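Sanity check. The docking grid for uracil depends on where the pocket ends up, so I'm generating a full predicted complex first rather than guessing from homology. Inputs follow.
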Amino acid sequence: MNVREHLLALTDELRRLKGEGSRQVAVSDASLAHLRQAVAHAQREVAALGGASAPAGGEGTAVPASASVQGEVRRYAPAIEEPVVRSAPEVARAPALPPRPPIELPPGTKRERWEALRQIVLNDATCLARVYPGKQVVFGVGNLDTSIMFIGEAPGADEEEQGEPFVGRAGQLLNRMIKAMGLEREQVYIGNILNWRPEMGTRSADGYQTGNRPPTQEEMAYCLPFIRAQIGIIQPKVLVALGKTAVDGLLGPDRFKTMGAARGAWHDYDGIPLRATYHPSYLLRQEGLKSGPALKIKRDAWEDLLAVMERAELPVSEKQRGYFR
Ligand code: URA
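Predicted complex below; grid placement will be based on this.
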């Protein structure tokens, strides 16, 4: 992707988050520095092409919402007013998490143990304290006898509203991915690393501010035993880690630097083969983009799913194999 496509993808994602009700997004200092560089680069590009001159102010200054370049109206990232971009340390200031009580499951059938675990998580005082009034702790859903278990990052606005993982836009794409594999959502199991929507800001009399930020290490450490216990009960043939947070949570935070390094091979999670692939939210950002890198990302994700189908011993048709040929 070139700089323009990156900026358009970014603004589309910010619009999506805003549409979902987010008022802030967490951005690490490193990402903020990259963003500033990209904006400065775009400004130089406009200036070099003889379009609107780059506004004074240097790095970080908002670029015009559109700039006429050689007769063509080219859109650049609009001034980022809302959602407010803040650095991650500033927003990750929720009170420290208390130690989690040990998980004790009664003996019984798969469903009985799963239901007992579900009740533990839904009534966990720490999970409940992280959820705002009217919103819900989110536990995994699906077929307990499935061969494939998908694991994402954390609930978003739609998920905390409905109390179910992957029901928003990313969930709709995940449903389409599952369908393309020849399955229905009800035939697989879907869970998350975190059971609550990561808190972004402070609560106030006017309401609260949340947004989608990655979970902190501490939050992940608190919730990981819950998803591990779900895997232990369900014992799927294959695990699919959706995105880097799921990879870090299940395989260890230092194992892979990037998603690119994690995907394309089989890993072992406690004797269960695990495949890492791109998070549906990331894939959504590639939708509509026709550049080589964007197409490769979509093709790679489909290849990951084909590998999962084979490992789970699902039939793979020629049509499915040829989707991206
Ligand atoms: N993204 C996730 O990682 N999980 C969800 O449940 C929804 C969006």
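Relevant for the grid: The chain has two domains: 3-75, 110-321.
Also worth noting: The pocket of uracil is lined by residues 152-156, 159, 165-166, 168, 170-171, 192, 281 (CB under 6 Å).
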